[in-house]
Amino acid sequence: MKLQPWWEAVSLTDMSDSQWESLCDGCAKCCLVKLEDYDSADIYHTNVSCQLLDTESCRCSDYPGRHKVVDDCIKLDRNNINTLAWLPKSCSYRLVAAGQPLPEWHYLRSGDREMIHSYGASLRGKVVSELEVREEDIEDHIIKWID
Fold it and tell me: In terms of pTM, does the model score above 0.70?
């Protein structure tokens, strides 16, 4: 009998904080600057990342203090994970919440945190920091991500 991985056996509500945090696949797509059309409420992704994103590691450079530095940084949690339509379909939190398996490149399955990057599933090499883009030019960076 094959044992079920813990992320399939434990419900989101029963996960410890460390289990929840370990679900993050490190794609960094939640760290993109997004623009909202106020008339239609459509959300547009850009290839501009949050100022705190280390674009090489695809990790936040100040994860514990991010909400003090970036006032519109949204904390993903068990209560809002199903309400954030702008998250990519490939987001590990969304997959687990929907009862779907983690992708083979997820480090919980592969044991390798670099595999997501070699598969091209992260933002590594695909974004520029918002520190390098003038606010009035952000609309020029709207892109269509493929999940």
Answer: yes
